Amino acid sequence: MPTTRLLASAFGYGAANVIPTLGAVPLDVRPTFHTMMIKANEPVMRSAVAMAILTPVAAGRGSRRSARTS
């Protein structure tokens, strides 16, 4: 579950900070600003999404093993 919280925090950060900042950027600069922001955030968000997808699978396997050994 911590990875899911990390992913939720990343989206929460975007909603709280990035969206209002984007509104303050002049329209003629906005496409460049948005493109650069996506390039900078892409590796972080891809990693967070991948971890969120894979974490429940790993946690589920671990709980089954502990149930078998008990």
Describe the overall structure:
- Helix 1 packs antiparallel against helix 2.
- This protein is an all-alpha fold and 70 residues long.
Overall 3D form: elongated
The class by helix and strand makeup works out as: mainly alpha
Assembly type:
single chain
**In this structure, how is the largest beta sheet organized?**
none
The strand count comes to 0
Q: Low-confidence runs (pLDDT<50, min 5 residues)?
A: none
User: Helical proportion?
Assistant: over 70%
Strand % is: under 5%
Mean model confidence by pLDDT? 75
What value does the Rg take, in angstroms? 18 Å
Distance between the termini: 23 Å
Write the topology of this structure:
Elements: H1 2-24, H2 30-69
Helix pairs in contact: 1-2
What are the salient characteristics of this protein?
70 residues, mainly alpha, elongated
Short account of what is shown:
By secondary structure, this protein is mainly alpha-helical.
